[in-house]
Amino acid sequence: MNVQTVAQDAFKNKVILVTGAGAGIGRQAATSLAAHGATVILLGRTVEKLEQVYDAIVASGGPEPAIIPLDLKGATEKHYLDMAATIESSLGQLDGVLHNASELGVLGSIEQTDMAMFDEVMKVNVTAQLNMTKALLPLLKKADAGRIVFTSSSVGKKGRAFWNAYAISKFATEGLMQVLADEMSNTNVRVNCINPGATQTGMRAKAYPAEDVSLLKQPADLMPLYLYLLSVQAQENGQSIDAQPK
Ligand SMILES: NC(=O)c1ccc[n+]([C@@H]2O[C@H](COP(=O)([O-])OP(=O)(O)OC[C@H]3O[C@@H](n4cnc5c(N)ncnc54)[C@H](OP(=O)(O)O)[C@@H]3O)[C@@H](O)[C@H]2O)c1
Asked: Which positions carry the signal peptide feature in this UniProt record (predicted)?
């Protein structure tokens, strides 16, 4: 895929929601979007982390962000409908959503799956994204160029032993993206998936505690693809794109 560089003001007058915006790739995406002019809605479960991102964006002269504290584990359909109404009344528009928040759960064999863990991972990584997308679609369809980016993983494209709920949730994410992209094909909304590849974050450290982190990409290295797929320039729809192609 040809990842076009976006202009420094590509997101001026755009409102973009980032889930899991307090850490890792989501934090970097939020600050990069703001640096390109976006009003960013920072959604996550740890308010302190969201406030730190808010402060960093304001300190660097970016548009004032909004904060939505929400734990996707406990969120209901009403939370998402209220959220959509609040975004519309306070910001007037929504141009893009980056579904980035995810939980790793517990790695281990299918035979030993802890079903409570499985339910939680599916709720956070799949059900919450469907529920949120459903509530936000009316706003995204009103935008000139609504953009939705889901976050996949290599283990959501080819199954790998012991990746359990996380891998299964990422296959489901790919499915949700494809179904929605097809439904949106005659609209101004474009829907795609990014597989970040190995990236130095808290989640990666949990999954691979012993690896040499100096060999990993930083979240900032991935940003050209994230910015492009969330921008007006992107015309791709229904694609699952590796940020670090082999
Ligand atoms: N890093 C990699 O190598 C890699 C590779 C492939 C795919 N990915 C995917 O990339 C995305 C970002 O991962 P990352 O590596 O940046 O992970 P991360 O550093 O662990 O960040 C994940 C973010 O999601 C938030 N989050 C988790 N559970 C949540 C919940 N129940 N409600 C609300 N927010 C929640 C976290 O909030 P708290 O900070 O408050 O916990 C955190 O801000 C994920 O979808 C992941 O699956 C990452």
From this structure: none
Determine the Cα–Cα distance for residues 121 and 108; give it in Å rounded to an integer. Answer: 14
Which residue's CA is the closest to the ligand 1 atom numbered 17?
A: 203
Read off the pLDDT band of 2 (50, 70, 90): confident
Backbone angles phi, psi at 231, to 5 degrees: -90, 165
Distances (CA, A) of 175 to 99, 178, 181, 193: 14, 5, 10, 10
> Per the structure block, which two tokens stand in for 153?
């993983």
Indicate if 166 belongs to the active site.
yes
Q: Is the dihedral of CA 185, 131, 143, 99 positive or negative?
A: negative
List 80, 166, 226, 228, catalytic entry:
166
Q: Which of 18, 14, 30 shows the shortest CA–CA distance to 145?
A: 14
Distance 243 CA to ligand 1 centre (A): 16
Beta bridge partners of 43: 19, 68
User: Residue 1 above 90 pLDDT?
Assistant: no
- Report pLDDT digits (tens) over 17-60: 999 999 999 999 999 999 999 999 999 999 999 999 999 999 99
**Ligand 1 pocket by C-beta < 6 Å: which residues?**
20, 22-26, 44-46, 49, 71-73, 100-103, 124, 151, 153, 196, 198-199, 201-204
Nearest CA to ligand 1 atom 6: 153
